[in-house]
Amino acid sequence: MRELAAVLLAMLASSLYAAASALQALEARRAPASTALRASLLGRLARRKLWLAGTGSSVVGWGLQAAALALASVTLVQPALGLGLIVLLVLGVRLLHERVGVREIGGAVAIAAAVAALAWAGPSEATSFTRAGSWAVGIAIVLTALAPFGLRLVRLAGGLATSIVSGIGWACVGLGTALAVSALSDRRWLVAIGWGLGVGLASGSTLLAEMTALQSWPATRSIPVVFGLEMALPAAVAPLLSTGASPPHPVAFGLALVVACAGAALLGSSRSVARQMAGAEPGGSQHEPTAATV
Predict the structure, then answer these.
(1) How far apart are CA 157 and CA 287, in angstroms?
(2) Which has the least CB within 10 A, 6, 138, 167, 238?
(3) Helix 102-121 crosses helix 83-96 at what angle (to 10 degrees)?
């Protein structure tokens, strides 16, 4: 029952994250390209009501994700975030009257089946990080917070680079959230606050990279990269960073993880899902760049 509750919470969190991205992307695409990977981009967006509404949705989603991580291992919760893509598919069909094809059906079935398999094949307990694992996540969060400035320094503000940084960043946020939840359950209040601050900084930098990615790349190309890394990376590294996170059925777990990522790639490249994620404008049109800047 704990695993089922965690999956449902992860699905709700992912749906809110997706709704947040849709609202935020509408405003990000209107921002000048000169603001890419600059704090002024978030400063400009923070004055927009739609973007603030999306941010509020994301904060609520993060709370639900934290609750899911308190119930089950990060190796289950992070891949389960892909279920939000199915919610986006339903919204695309109901609200935008998009057509569902083999790609969409295949992606939805793959994600749903993979998450069910992960719940069976993965570890049942919440993740308990080792000291070395905690340090590794802490270093990764610091690097994530600095990543947009590094990309700007080496002049890599294109869609591919920022999408990869976004996916890795959200993966690190998930791992940091798991550590914050663990500290709270152990009543280590100062440690929990420290992880919370780190997660907040990493989230801000990752959000900046994600908004830059949607400025320069179509959502059909960015979403599969971001979701794939966000789902797979924490599940892949958790056994190396923690105790009790090794899956009891490793082969089945690995195959299910691959299937989940493949399903996310299929759904993420779907026009109906991409329009929901990237913010379809009134009248049914969506502003997507005609050429990628990499």
Answers:
(1) 19
(2) 138
(3) 150
- Inter-axis angle of helices 250-268 and 83-96, nearest 10: 20
Question: Model-level pTM greater than 0.85?
Answer: no
Least confident range from 92-101, 106-115, 281-290: namely 281-290
- Distance, in Å, from the CA atom of 242 to the CA atom of 58, rounded to the nearest integer, reads 27
The residue ranges of every structural domain in the chain are: 2-278
Dump pLDDT digits (tens) for 158-205: 778 888 899 999 999 999 999 999 899 889 999 999 999 999 999 989
Give whole-number Cα distances, 119 to 78, 145, 170, 176, 263, in Å: 12, 31, 21, 21, 17
> Residue holding tokens 């990080």?
129
Is 37's pLDDT higher than 60?
yes
| Cα gap 249→227, rounded to integer Å | 24
Distance of alpha carbon 80 from alpha carbon 83, whole angstroms:
6
Q: Are 75 and 234 in contact (CB under 8 A)?
A: yes
Distance CA 222, CA 92 (A): 18
